[in-house]
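Issue 218. Parser rejects a valid record. Input:
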Amino acid sequence: MNFSVIIVILFVNIYKCNSKRFTRCQLASELLKMKYIEKTFLSNWVCLAEKVSNRDTKAFVVSPSGKKSYGIFQIPSRWCREGKKGGECNVACESLLDDDIRDDTACAVTIFHREGFKYWTKWENRCKNDKMITTEIYKCPDLIHPRLSPELNSPSEVLRTKRKHSRVGMERSRFLNPFEIKLLN
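Output the parser choked on:
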């Protein structure tokens, strides 16, 4: 076995020990909090992370040709530099392997703006028309209802807020129904 392959295996195993693996909902919520991406593309980003790294912050892959990819979005070494900041994202490759995914996301968004999602072949092959992840993440509690502020955490305030949202929805329904009936006649 080649000595460099052994080093890479040890490197990967060391980083895997402390990795963070997001659930789909956790990742969707985290990505929205950062405000780097639009909600419209959220399912694409979650799917991309799932297919390239299994949503694992410490994912590190060395291809048979020796190309290295880092982090949750598997950012190739062209975009970062080993040992210090550099590459097209001006980031250290090793910083893409920690649990803070802000730099990973910022770099991935840079790649997206220059190359599109097609840059990642796994997105093209496995996410492009995937509606299952879209359906699933939009059921996530943090995406359905924003977290309530601490002063609204009492059961009566939560119930009052739910009733208010229901009334608004019912009023919209009443407003639209007569109009829809006229259209049908």
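Fixed in the parser; the record now loads. DSSP finds eight helices and three strands in the chain.
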